[in-house]
Amino acid sequence: MAHRARPNPEGDPLFVFDRILRVLLTVLLIAGLFMTAQNAYFLRLAKNEYGLFCTLLSIAVLLTRLRHTLRDLAILLLSTVALLVIASRPDHFRAGVPLILSILGLASVAVLGVRLFWCRDASRAMLFWGFAASFALVSSGWVLPGLLAWGARANPKSFDLYLMSFDASLRFQPSFALGAAFLRWPLFGKVSTAFYMGILCLCTLVFADHLHRSVKKAVAIFSAFFCSSFIGLLFFNLFPARGPFYLFQADFPRRPLPLDVVRHLHLEPLNVPGYANAMPSLHMTWALRATPHCGFAWWPPLSWPSLFSRLWGPGNITSRISWWHFRSPL
């Protein structure tokens, strides 16, 4: 009996086209990230805008949740070093912690993208939505600082006196009390700052953990996080406020105004320097949105992402209550 010849996929035009497309997408992604690592605007944002490097750090959290094999971690480390060599050349910027975290996030985008382009198993849908979320986060981290700066120029008025009056109606000024506590106990301030800056890590961790279970639910959760950013930007210009640090400058929190003086202030909009990002607080929005999704399993078994999220979610809400522009949305 004659044996049937096994088909040769390499001679199939569709196979050849598929292979060329994968190679092309890989080259374009890596080239784009190398160009980004040399871009002066990106490097300036990475060193000065905490929002960007926290966003990129959250992508590294997403990658390590989706792909945490030693091989992937080794590739991530090598990619980070390669991008750092480009970003910190003498004619660019010296490497610092914010820049290193930003480059780590860029490398995570590269690893996720390459894994997606060459994936042929059932995890492809999970990698696709993980990469799509990473691309959306990078784009928003790049665009949002410019939008906030434009909003500050287009709408310079601030309603901080109204929020300050609300503080005084409580018969004490909690913003100044907590600010003084931050100065008295530096560790308390550092922990609160870590919760504040790490909110996106919580959001991406919640998204990644649900992505392992239900792609449809995970996409819905991420869509809510992502869309709330741009909805918040619209509301910033309806009730713009900066916060006590921007209103009092060097006097905060050591020299609060007496309550009698605050109660008799003429309430009016003021020109206060800084971004209008207080009402509503997007960080408070993300914390309240993420916390209901933090518990994925009750003990036993309790996975480490679930445990981390349950501790981080309430901690985020607690840290938001520290300042009036985070407490008022409650």
What does this structure look like?
The protein has 330 residues and is mostly helical. The chain folds into 2 domains: 108 residues, no CATH class; 176 residues, no CATH class. 69% of the residues lie in helices and 1% in strands. Helix 10 runs parallel beside helix 14, helix 10 runs antiparallel to helix 15 and helix 11 runs antiparallel to helix 14. The C terminus is likely disordered.
**How far apart are the first and last residues' alpha carbons, in Å?**
80 Å
Determine the number of helices (DSSP H or I, runs of at least 4 residues): 16
Rg measurement, Å = 24 Å
Low-confidence stretches: 296-304, 321-330
Structural class: mainly alpha
The average pLDDT is: 78
User: How many beta-strand segments?
Assistant: 2
The strand line-up of the biggest sheet is 1-2
Q: How large is the share of residues in beta strands? A: under 5%
Helix and strand sequence: HHHHHHEHHHHHHHEHHH
